[in-house]
């Protein structure tokens, strides 16, 4: 009898030790720590969060995302727009962990949603903002997720690939630094100039350009502003470029045709996700740098 009790006690101790060994406590960007053990049902908010989890090989744990979580191509259920997160919709997915970024969680009513989720007993990990911090910020979020999933080697492999891409980027910079603006457009009559906040600014700088927007936020596009700024190059999201009617339509936007970029038809398209800084940033920057290297030689 005593032997059986001893065996049971040892077994229980081993099981507890195993459970604790697999647990990870990760401190969020909001100062709130979460302790998780092998999460199986994760709601991953912000497209960069989804991408990083895929890179870690843990995409099978994702049970929900928002409208930005479309890459890699997937059939993950969406809870809706990232700026209007629904507490009920997230709770209905029965997650054991919700992961999102600080920039998204502070928009609109989303901070209240985080409080509601935590009040419902759901753990919420807040990653640092995805629209600032450059590649170092991506690495920070990557390492936090690697801690959550206990896959440090996967994070190390991705970090190593960044180093390789940055080396290629270094030798593909344009000889002359182009003066660049990022235009965000929903259609021919709805376009804005993005300032120096956000992922587009990071992309421009990594690719060897200089963002000449004289403000941090977003301003409506006017012909006067465009002509006065006189960019050498303009970048647009793929969907925005399509929405205005591609090159012909872009040249009809206020003031564009009167700029060096317009006269030389130097309007470049970039991935729709670049407002948020994710693991494909070096890839996007290298693609843009190679185009600028060819176009801005002297």
UniProtKB/TrEMBL annotation:
Kindly give the Gene3D superfamilies that the UniProt entry links to this protein: Nitrogenase molybdenum iron protein domain
Q: Which keywords, in A-to-Z order, does the entry hold?
A: Signal
Record flagged with keyword Signal: yes
Domain of life assignment: Bacteria
PROSITE patterns in the record: FE_B12_PBP
Q: Which CDD domains match?
A: HutB
User: Span of the secretion signal?
Assistant: 1-23
| Entries under InterPro entries matching the protein | ABC_Transporter_SBP, ABC_transptr_periplasmic_BD
**Fe/B12 periplasmic-binding domain location, by residue?**
41-298
What name does the UniProt record give this protein? ABC-type transporter, periplasmic subunit
What does UniProt list as this organism's lineage?
A: Bacteria, Thermotogati, Deinococcota, Deinococci, Deinococcales
């Amino acid at each position: 009898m005593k032997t059986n009790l001893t065996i049971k006690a040892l077994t229980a101790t081993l099981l507890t030790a195993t459970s604790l060994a697999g647990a990870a406590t990760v401190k969020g960007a909001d100062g709130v720590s979460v302790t998780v053990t092998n999460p199986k049902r994760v709601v991953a908010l912000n497209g960069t969060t989804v991408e990083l989890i895929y890179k870690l090989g843990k995409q099978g744990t994702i049970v929900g995302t928002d409208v930005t979580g479309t890459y890699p191509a997937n059939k993950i259920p969406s809870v809706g727009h990232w700026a209007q997160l629904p507490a009920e919709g997230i709770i209905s997915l029965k997650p054991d962990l919700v992961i999102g970024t600080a920039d998204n969680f502070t928009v609109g009513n989303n901070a209240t949603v985080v409080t509601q989720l935590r009040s419902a007993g759901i753990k919420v990990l807040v990653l640092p903002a995805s629209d600032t911090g450059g590649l170092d910020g991506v690495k920070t979020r990557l390492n936090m997720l690697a801690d959550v999933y206990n896959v440090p080697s996967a994070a190390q492999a991705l970090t190593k690939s960044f180093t390789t891409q940055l080396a290629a980027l270094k030798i593909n910079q344009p000889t002359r630094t182009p003066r660049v603006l990022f235009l965000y457009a929903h259609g021919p009559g709805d376009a804005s100039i993005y300032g120096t906040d956000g992922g587009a600014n990071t992309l421009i700088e990594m690719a060897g350009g200089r963002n000449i927007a004289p403000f941090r936020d977003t301003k409506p596009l006017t012909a006067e502003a465009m002509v006065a700024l006189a960019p050498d190059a303009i970048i647009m999201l793929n969907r925005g470029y399509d929405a205005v009617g591609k090159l012909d339509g872009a040249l009809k936007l206020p003031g564009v045709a009167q700029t060096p970029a317009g006269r030389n038809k130097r309007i470049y398209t970039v991935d729709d996700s670049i407002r948020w800084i994710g693991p494909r940033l070096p890839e996007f920057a290298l693609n843009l740098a190679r185009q600028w290297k060819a176009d801005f030689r002297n």
